[in-house]
Write a structure and sequence with these properties.
Length: about 325
């Protein structure tokens, strides 16, 4: 598939792979749905940077270590869904011919670990190229998660956006803003369905709320890692204004900065970093993943925490909570 091979060089593709057990056949996967307990849990794997120096001993060993991080998180959390939050493959020192093999390796980890009895051709990924009018940006799409209590009604919307990179500007474009308005008005005209948003490169709004680099993360922000300045998109072309004025949007999740894992409030939503998951890429901070758990029921909530490779958790935060009548 040529489209993502080109974008892997830019290292900005957002891919999502469903982990729900009992999914339907490879050509008709079951709809995403809240579990019987009314919860839907996501694991965010950010900045894997597979394929660095594949011709050396340390390069493949590094990729093996990344495999172990994901395995540890999956074993501990048993999520319903995984989001690959960008920079899956290194853009700097991987032969182009190796890119597709590395992509297959990444997306097969969860299938092997969680549903080993299924054939690898089951096609559990929910990623999409996205509208042609948004090219060269790809992976712009929205996923619905259906309610357990009302099986035909969506109880959560998840938007995935390409934030550029590589040979393209690191920005969410005006065309993407228009697309978001169109999708959100069609799917959620009254704003009653909670919405989460995912892209890779943080917006300039992250700079506005960021704790001073290397300082302790203090309330209202929550996090444990604050070792660098935010490296934001090159411009803000309206997406943050659109999201900030939409109460149904509860949080935005990004990667890109390996030395940050905090969440901070912004307007009426939260801006969150994931946690550097892969052993590729810069920085030697301990690896982990951000977990996001959404509860429907009468007391709706979005809670998040960091699960580390060693099994520990920290930085628990409630991103949204509301009681429905």
């Amino acid at each position: 598939m040529r489209w993502w091979q080109c974008r892997l060089a830019a290292a900005v593709a957002l891919l999502a792979a469903v982990l729900a057990l009992g999914a339907a056949g490879p050509r008709s996967p079951a709809p995403l749905r809240f579990a019987p307990g009314g919860r839907f849990k996501l694991a965010l794997f950010a900045d894997l940077h597979y394929g660095e120096n594949a011709w050396t001993d340390w390069g493949p060993a590094q990729d093996d270590a990344s495999d172990r991080v994901m395995a540890a998180v999956l074993d501990a959390e048993n999520p319903d869904f995984v989001v690959y939050l960008g920079d899956l493959v290194t853009a700097n020192n991987v032969p182009v011919a190796n890119a597709s093999d590395l992509q297959n390796r990444i997306t097969s980890q969860e299938v092997e670990l969680m549903t080993a009895e299924l054939d690898r051709a089951c096609g559990l990924s929910r990623s999409s190229v996205g509208p042609r009018e948004l090219w060269p940006g790809v992976s712009n799409y929205v996923l619905q998660v259906l309610s357990h209590e009302k099986p035909h009604d969506p109880a959560l919307l998840m938007y995935f956006l390409d934030s550029g990179g590589g040979s393209y500007p690191e920005v969410v474009s005006c065309a993407q803003v228009t697309w978001f308005h169109s999708q959100s008005r069609f799917l959620n005209p009254d704003g009653r369905i909670p919405e989460l948003v995912f892209w890779h490169v943080p917006s300039t709004a992250y700079v506005k709320v960021a704790p001073k680099a290397t300082s302790e993360v203090r309330k209202p922000c929550v996090g444990s890692l604050n070792e660098e300045d935010v490296a934001p998109q090159v411009a803000e072309w309206g997406m943050m204004d659109a999201l900030a004025h939409r109460p149904s949007v509860k949080a935005i999740f990004v990667g890109h900065n390996h030395g940050l894992d905090w969440c901070c409030p912004y307007e009426k939503l939260w801006l969150c970093f994931a946690r550097h998951t892969g052993h590729g890429g810069y920085g030697d901070w301990p690896r982990g993943a951000r977990i996001v758990e959404v509860a429907e029921k009468k007391h709706f909530s979005v809670n998040s925490w960091i699960r580390m490779e060693n099994g520990s958790t920290h930085s628990h935060v409630t991103l949204s909570s509301a009681r429905f009548s």
